[in-house]
Structure to design on (374 residues):
């Protein structure tokens, strides 16, 4: 039987234009498995008029747009309260809720997690030093030297890039988020900073969980998040301890509800008691579900192959987008790039994938022409 709070959330979501269309075939009586998935493309391609169903003041943040055009997220005051309460809960698990001096070193404008970490940390009883990642290394070094933080919250890649100016003998805990923390980088950062590292896991679409002192999976609050895992081939629901795609439902009535969102992350869940003594369930993350682009029946292009070429040539910060144009005898795969001056190198590398490639400079597009077999 569907949980009452979830049923209320789903019925509330039907007042938004997006879910009204998505749930048009959902009857009055349904189970969780009857509820359609929220695909990432819906959040990219549909404008704000689909979500805005409130007279409340809104705070708008965006994704970075490095893998497609940015997605906008609309946060009401209730969303901000929800986020800061959850971050307080996370910091209680990390053992840093109250009396700490936290340097929060990440983007403080475009990306919402910077702001939410600030208000959540203050709510947890900590003093906060926001340090924007766009500042020079000299300024960052001065802020760390002056503030002498006991906790440093940042992204693994920023910690690696700025480690010489971030190291401070007063730091005893590092909180990482926003990117995968691979074991090699964890070991390196732990040794360099001589601090305990607690990694937090989440999506732009929702905060999920955090490591405890066991560093074995991420605890999450089932009163705030409903997590499912689906078989990677069949989309059938899985039991505990089975690896599959993570499906996220944020149990919060927001201008932009997140209900059965396909994360693309390969995870497993356990509701067993953790050795740390907590009864909160845990989720483990293996990586991303392999994404492919269908050219024509039986022919796929692995997205990771194209991403590697773009990242190696233009760097990981260049925005890009894929588009497919299908014709009777051939298919055109467009790669739309912004502000990348190495397009000729990309063309050359794509040709090594055995695709006939045409380079069109108009509107920063590369066109890969793939002929269908006769």
């Amino acid at each position: 039987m569907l949980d009452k709070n979830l049923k209320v959330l789903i019925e509330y979501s039907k007042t938004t234009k997006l879910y009204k269309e998505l749930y048009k075939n959902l009857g009055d009586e349904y189970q969780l498995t009857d509820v359609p998935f929220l695909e990432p493309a819906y959040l990219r391609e549909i404008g704000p008029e689909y979500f805005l169903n409130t007279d409340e003041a809104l705070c708008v943040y965006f994704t970075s747009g490095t893998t497609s055009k940015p997605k906008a997220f609309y946060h009401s005051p209730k969303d901000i309260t929800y986020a800061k309460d959850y971050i307080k809960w996370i910091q209680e698990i990390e053992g840093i809720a109250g009396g700490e001096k936290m340097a929060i070193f990440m983007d403080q404008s475009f990306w919402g997690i910077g702001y939410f970490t600030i208000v959540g940390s203050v709510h947890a009883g900590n003093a906060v030093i926001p340090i924007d990642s766009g500042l020079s290394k000299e300024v960052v070094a001065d802020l760390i030297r002056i503030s002498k933080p006991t906790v440093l919250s940042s992204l693994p890649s920023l910690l690696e890039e700025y480690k010489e100016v971030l190291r401070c003998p007063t730091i005893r805990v590092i909180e990482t988020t926003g990117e995968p923390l691979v074991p090699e980088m964890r070991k390196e950062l732990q040794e360099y900073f001589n601090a305990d590292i607690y990694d937090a896991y989440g999506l732009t679409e929702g905060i999920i969980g955090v490591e405890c002192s066991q560093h074995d999976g991420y605890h999450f609050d089932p009163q705030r998040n409903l997590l499912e895992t689906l078989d990677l081939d069949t989309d059938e629901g899985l039991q505990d301890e089975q690896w599959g795609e993570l499906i996220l439902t944020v149990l919060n009535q927001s201008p932009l509800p997140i209900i059965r969102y396909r994360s693309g992350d390969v995870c497993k869940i356990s509701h067993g008691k953790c050795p740390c003594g907590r009864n909160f369930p845990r989720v483990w993350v293996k990586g991303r579900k392999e994404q492919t682009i269908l050219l024509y029946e039986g022919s796929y292009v692995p997205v990771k192959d194209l991403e590697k070429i773009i990242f190696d040539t233009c760097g990981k910060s260049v925005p890009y987008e894929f588009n497919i144009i299908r014709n009777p005898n051939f298919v055109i795969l467009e790669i739309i790039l912004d502000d990348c001056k190495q397009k000729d190198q990309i063309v050359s590398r794509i040709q090594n994938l055995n695709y006939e490639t045409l380079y069109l400079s108009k509107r920063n597009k590369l066109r890969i022409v793939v002929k269908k077999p006769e």
